[in-house]
Write a structure and sequence with these properties.
The protein has a 6-stranded mixed beta sheet, with helices on one face. Strands 3-2-6-5 form a 4-stranded mixed beta sheet, with no helix packed on it. A two-stranded antiparallel sheet has the order 11-12. Strand 11 and strand 12 form a beta hairpin. The chain has 139 residues and is mostly beta strands. The protein contains 1 helix and 12 strands, in the order βββββββαβββββ.
Length: 139
């Protein structure tokens, strides 16, 4: 609901995100394609029929034993290099959220936050917050 009156759209997996090296590169020639668990794009020109072309504004990965190393290392470096403005990693087993926000230098800087309880406020959408407890309701 927060994004209702904004030009942003939410995309759940599976949704391909293409990071082309060249502006007019063909889909078959793009060698870096990922499928984040959840992403938000606020630039309509990045939204194509076959997926997202370029960096989302917010990307969220939910860790699993088979993806944790890739999400915490390879995708971290990829998202930082390609310009993803905010990257969240959520660990449902450890019950924590790691928030990375790009600084003016283009790097995920010292404002990065590991949260186990409380409220996380988005760096890209400062009027939007999430209560971490809502991610893992009690049984």
């Amino acid at each position: 609901m927060f994004l209702k009156d904004k030009p942003c759209r939410v995309f759940p997996a599976p949704c391909d995100v293409f990071f082309p090296r060249l502006q007019d590169q063909r889909e078959d020639d793009v060698d870096t394609v990922v499928q984040p668990d959840l992403l938000v794009v606020c630039e309509p020109e990045k939204i194509h029929e076959n997926g997202i072309w370029g960096a989302p504004d917010l990307t969220i990965e939910i860790l699993s034993p088979s993806t944790s190393r890739k999400d915490l290392n390879e995708k971290f470096r990829l998202y930082e290099r390609e310009g993803v403005r905010e990257y969240w990693v959520i660990d449902p087993v450890g019950r924590w959220l790691q928030q990375y926000v790009r600084g003016d230098d283009g790097l995920y800087g010292p404002q990065n936050l590991l949260v186990r309880t409380g409220i996380v406020t988005s760096g890209v959408f400062p009027d939007w917050s999430l209560d971490i407890a809502s991610l893992w309701p009690e049984h």
